[in-house]
Amino acid sequence: MRADARIRLWRVICAVTFAVALVAGGAAQNVQAKLITFNFEGDVTYVGDKLLGTFNVGDKLSGSYTFDSATPDIVTDPVFGDYYALKALNFTVGTYTGTLGAGTRVIEVVNNYTDIISTTDWYRVLNNPFSGPNVGGLPPSDFLLYLQDTTAAVFSSDALPITPPDLSLFDEKVFDVRFGPCDNSTAGECNLMGTITSLTLGISPDTILEFFDDSVDNGDLSGSGPGKSANNRLNALRNMVEEAGALIEGGFIAEACRQLMDAYKKTDGKPRPPDFVEGDAAPDLATMIQDLRAGLGCQQ
Ligand SMILES: [Ca+2]
Ligand SMILES: [Ca+2]
Question: What's phi and psi for 234, nearest 5 deg?
Fold first, then answer.
């Protein structure tokens, strides 16, 4: 049944990819892109033989992923919502770090999938292949986060959640990190699995921009510098955060990291380079920028 659904999905993907290409050449999309970040944590409960040493049972998983909330569902079936929305991914297990790789970057939301046994809701984040170092000679394959509710109560549609789904509502909450290819005789030895213990809202460029604008409105943040330069600098810093968002949208994570470091240095309270903003909110702004950088897996 699942295989049939997959085949149907891939047919739809091929058709929709063509349609999207047509649309992209024409009118701009109406829905404004908004970047949202979820942070996650987990505990490793299984490590395949070929990965032992690099990973161990009991290791902690932590990370985050960022997606564009305006990404359309490419499956017309109201049961399946498939959103090719992932813009950034960063996860750490022990000393290993993986990031968003090329290929499949999907968040799938399924509402009331029914087979002969049960009706189920699930939420799935998949990047295949993710990017990271080889382990035991095996290259990265799948990063999967999977939440399942066999009472089918958690979702009432296949819409993409913009706040983290409540983990307590799922009876299965797992992650699965695969390396390979692994042939059938050794399948299961090239992955690690565990339990997702936390899923929370993280910092995205849009979160920062909302905080920035609110702080300016209520007088907690203003430009720094003589005369008109103060306002210009205020706007310049806002533009830097906005541009970082555009870079993330475009998949230019390293460039976004550099841009955010430049922005951080202009609100970190240190004299060089001079800060572009001042006020009670400036230190919080600096912290948010650093949290965003951490979520993106920026170096330093
Ligand atoms: Ca759908
Ligand atoms: Ca449901």
Answer: -55, -50
Q: Across the strands, what pairs with 223?
A: 277
Residue 12 has what DSSP assignment? H
Distance of CA 120 from the midpoint of ligand 2 (Å): 7
Q: Give Cα separations from 1 to 72, 251, 298 (angstroms).
A: 25, 34, 41
pTM of the model: 0.84
pLDDT in tens, 14-27: 344 444 443 443 34
**For the segment 142-167, what is each residue's pLDDT rounded down to a tens digit?**
999 999 999 999 999 999 999 999 99
Q: Are 128 and 168 in contact (CB under 8 A)?
A: no
* Distance from C-alpha of 242 to C-alpha of 204, rounded to nearest angstrom: 11
166 Cα–ligand 2 center, Å: 14
Q: How far apart are CA 19 and CA 13, in angstroms?
A: 10
Question: For 88-125, what is the HEC assignment?
Answer: EEEEEECCEEEECCCCEEEEEEEEEEECCCCEEEEEEE
207 to each of 125, 190, 260, how far by Cα in Å? 21, 37, 14
State the distance from the centre of ligand 1 to the C-alpha of 159, rounded, in angstroms.
8
pLDDT at 299: 82
Domain ranges of the chain: 2-13+31-201, 205-296
